[in-house]
Write a structure and sequence with these properties.
By secondary structure, the chain is mainly beta. The chain contains four helices and 36 strands. The strands form ten sheets. The protein has a six-stranded mixed β-sheet with strand order 15-16-19-21-28-27, with no helix packed on it. A five-stranded mixed β-sheet has the order 11-12-13-14-20, with no helix packed on it. It has a four-stranded mixed β-sheet with strand order 2-9-8-5, with no helix packed on it.
Length: about 450
């Protein structure tokens, strides 16, 4: 009887285990850690298939659309073979996830592709037309102020930065599409001039704004920032400390002077970060290119910066300095993939004669944007020069011809008076976007922001 009881109890235990165990969750979607790769021949990169829900166990099957360009093994390790483009696929549970791989190889007589090469010269020679206007008449939170930087994550999510000269606050406005007006905004205090911002839609579902931070009080507002911060975009939010979120400093100097006015550009496809900066007493723009993944993984360490506050703006208090000590990542600890300098142009035919208005890293190249609005000396002008990472000019300084015809600009509502100030540029999926701050009427208090679009593919 005792033995029978043991057998019966064991059978009952097995029955409960089978009956009470929850069924395995079904695979809802499949994605890869990267949707695009850029490799040299012989270079490798690891892809990982990510199931949703994350609790689903998968054993993906990997394949390459062209093994002569790139191969992939059973664990998702991709290897570049030769020049061209291939699609790497992971298949699991009836679902497929893909990554496009561009390889720069060594085949004789084969045109090099996959390094981000784009030539804007023909496109920039086009006159202004309705086909070039991507966004027209955007009004931001501070109607009387121009944008200083802008970016978008998709067709319904645009972000514009403003830095009014009479306030110690800067603003980032959310705009739900080209040509729309702002629907909400967040406030940053004493971060800086906001010349260059990056909007990132992250894997956690949040949107982050990369911008300069730890700005200095100047007669025309806050600028000359010591750092770059990555902060979550929060509608109605206020960041009051001069910096927030993840912050990066640059422990480098030129002629004994620390670099300032740090401005960021990021190419999320090629995984590159560009930092532009200035140094006191030098009529030069300095540029560094880093590997974005290394930048993100730099260790945190305690740093201190001395910032100038007050003295110019009502409500900002008397002139004073403040030492801020905080945890940050030091770009001085990262490997430099590229470095070059752009000296101030000596005459109107030279790069950087006009005001620097933004820069962009795209693949193996850095794009430099300069220009000025209408003045008594010249019409509105804008130019682009493209460099490689060593500072060699690969696309000579090219004028944006759309600004030449002030009558066309007025008739299309691009600007009331021919004044269009270049403000920040972006390159996405082979398309060049150029921002301009303009007047919408004779009243300077009514400023509009416009974007021109050039398909370079």
């Amino acid at each position: 009887m005792k033995l029978h009881g043991i057998i019966f109890a064991s059978a009952l235990s097995l029955f409960c285990t089978a009956a009470c165990e929850k069924p395995d969750p079904a695979l809802e979607s499949l994605s890869l850690t990267r949707t695009s790769l850029y490799l040299d021949a012989g270079e490798t990169a690891q892809l990982v298939a990510v199931p949703s829900p994350s609790s689903v166990l998968i054993s993906p099957t990997w394949s390459s659309s062209d093994a002569s360009v790139a191969t992939v093994n059973a664990s998702g390790l991709v290897r570049g073979v030769d020049t061209g483009t291939a699609v790497i696929s992971a298949t699991a549970g009836g679902m497929v996830a893909e990554c496009t791989v561009n390889v720069k190889g060594n085949s004789p007589g084969t045109e090099v592709t996959g390094d981000g090469w784009l030539d804007p010269r023909d496109a920039l020679s086009l006159p202004l037309s309705a086909a070039l206007i991507h966004s027209l008449g955007t009004q931001l939170y501070r109607r009387g102020n121009v944008m200083q930087g802008w970016d978008f994550t998709d067709a319904g999510h645009y972000y514009y930065a403003q830095a009014p000269s009479a306030l110690y606050s800067q603003y980032v406005s959310f705009v739900p599409g080209p040509g729309a007006s702002h629907s909400n905004f967040m406030t940053l205090e004493r971060f800086g001039h906001m010349t260059q911002i990056v909007a990132e839609k992250a894997s956690d579902g949040k949107t982050y704004i990369w911008c300069n931070s730890n700005g200095q009080a100047l007669s025309d507002g806050y600028g000359n920032s010591w750092s770059v911060s990555r902060i979550e975009y929060v509608p109605g939010g206020i960041y009051s400390g001069g910096y927030a979120g993840d912050t990066w400093v640059m422990d480098k100097s030129y002629g004994g002077k620390r670099f300032y006015d740090l401005q960021v550009s990021i190419d999320f496809d090629y995984r590159r970060m560009l930092i532009g900066a200035r140094a006191a007493g030098a009529a030069i723009r300095f540029h560094w290119v880093f590997d974005l993944d290394e930048v993100l993984s730099l260790p945190l360490k305690e740093v201190s910066v001395t910032v100038a506050l007050g003295g110019y703006i009502s409500g900002d208090g008397e002139a004073r300095s403040e030492v801020r000590t905080f945890m940050a990542r030091d770009l001085g600890d990262a490997e430099v993939l590229g470095y070059f300098e752009v000296p101030r142009g000596a005459d109107p035919s030279k790069t950087y004669y006009y005001s620097h208005q933004g820069h962009e890293v795209h693949g193996d190249y850095v794009w430099f944007y300069e220009g000025e609005a209408l003045t008594a000396d010249h019409p509105s002008v804008a130019f682009i020069t493209v460099y490689d990472y060593s500072g060699n000019v690969v696309i000579p300084r090219t004028e944006v011809a759309a600004l030449r015809d002030s009558n066309a600009m007025r008739s299309m509502g691009f600007t009331y008076d021919g004044s269009a100030e270049a403000e920040s540029m972006k390159i996405k999926d082979g398309v060049l976007y150029l921002g301009f701050a303009c007047h919408s009427s004779a009243a300077s208090s009514n400023r509009i922001q416009n974007i021109l679009k050039y398909d370079l593919k």
